[in-house]
Amino acid sequence: MGSTYSTNNNEGSRTSGLGDLPENCLARILACLDPPDICNLARINRVFRHASSADSVWEVKLPENYRFLAKKLMLYDGSFECLARKDIYVGLCCPVRFSSGTKEVWMDKRCGGICMLVSWKGMKIVGIDDRRYWTHIPTQQSRFHSIAYLQQIWWLQVEGDIEFKFPAGSYSLFFHIKLERPSNGRRCSSTTQKVHGWNIKPARFQFLVSNGQRVISESYLNEHGKWLNYHVGDFEVEDSYKPTKIKFSMTQIDCTHQKGGLALDCVFICSTRTQNMMATY
């Protein structure tokens, strides 16, 4: 079916298209599309641009608790009747840091799913301040501009938590890690540079949600040289207006051998809709 048609009469022909539809009808069509497609169509002409800015188009794209999110992330404390829903959507897509800059949250512009990062600096890590075990490496490979690099240790224990009013839906939790030597140009002994110990016993990943959901998984870490989003598991949020608290951890506490060569960046939480649309954050 085409988007235009011609009408022939004695006075000649006229071509009509979607742009001839009433603006409210066009807005109802646009509301069925994904946000990137809406923005692309808004560039066609003035009619599409006006229709794409209608509150009815963006209201259905916003999370159920968008008013709370706007106050939390956009620091907006005025009347929502004075703020266009499109402007709220755009504002929520801008990353915001909190908890002394150790956590970051934003809304995925493609599907409206909430995403969150927890930096290693916001976690409790055994031995993190002892340079015999861990080093802190500045890098542009992290959104927090630094990673924690494990040189060698007997007892690996990384713990953290987050509390937030996640919109209702399904979410996935990942550890963003890498098995690789330091790459900041500093000289290190071969002992501290070597990736070792991860194929002897598996690392244990787990998280516990305040509504009782718990996930435990174990894995041998053997893929070297690239950043991985290690998928720990999924959880459900049922109430958008109730804070959800998540405790997560990564451990390898078998003291029969040392392990090292692990780079830790952050924990990544995202809606499963976002997970299906992206390979890495």
Automatic annotation (TrEMBL):
Database matches in InterPro entries: F-box-like_dom_sf, F-box_dom, PP2-like
Matches recorded under Pfam families: F-box-like, PP2
Family annotation (SUPFAM superfamilies): F-box domain
Residue span(s) of domain F-box: 15-61
Domain of life assignment: Eukaryota
PANTHER family documented for this protein: F-BOX PROTEIN PP2-A15, OS04G0571300 PROTEIN
Protein name: F-box domain, cyclin-like protein
Lineage: Eukaryota, Viridiplantae, Streptophyta, Embryophyta, Tracheophyta
